[in-house]
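Same chain as my last thread, 263 residues:
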Amino acid sequence: MEELLWVALLLFIVSSLLLTKRSNNRSYVIGFIGWLFFAAHWATLPMYYAHISDFFNVILTILVAAFCAYVAFIMLINKDELTLTITKAAAIGGIFYFSFAEFSYLNYLLRKAVTVQTVAALNVLRIPAIQLGWNVVMLNNHSVEIILGCTGIESMALLLGIIACVSAPAVNKLKAFFVSVPVVYILNIVRNGFVITASGYEWFGSSDYSFYISHNVLAKFGSMAALVIISYLVFRILPELLDMMVNVFTLLKGGVQDASERF
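reply #2:
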């Protein structure tokens, strides 16, 4: 539900703006409520992905919903400044992603750009793909629609959020941005070209089955591998980010221990 999403993002922004008022518990309470709304938003998505047989995202959205609820719990119990930093990252990444996800004109511009560039990349490789309409690519009489998930916007938003929130020199943050966000965008064009070629030429059987294998299996794992490599490069440039991630893990683990002691 869009209402849950925008309420969560608004609360994240308010909580982030109160970061400097460390003695004020309102930032933690507001962030706690925001994470609960965010968890509720993600909890509404698994059924949608199950309906379209995207079981990878079914599992992913369930895990994200659980993580958001867990962060909310820890934020309320521990009142740790690190949870406010996580909230700031969620605010930045969330605003970036959901602006394209929820505003139709931005959504249109991004998907059209990716469609045009995917066709151009395939044509450079002498693969005779053609563009139908503004977001459909046809190859060998088989068509593929470019949806928002085909743009790589989720990974770019995640990387942008965590890079922006970490305490590090600006020049290092800029370097980390250039080895991550633009690279993800370019690799996503490659991913789209692979899926379109595999389904168009029926590499794994029928066109539909080839699309399923290339998109829902091979491309998913390829994207995860690429994200791991990019994350490693970002960590090399921003060691402060690695320290923050270790602290997040410690905080999450400590939240369970602290809760067991309290209750």
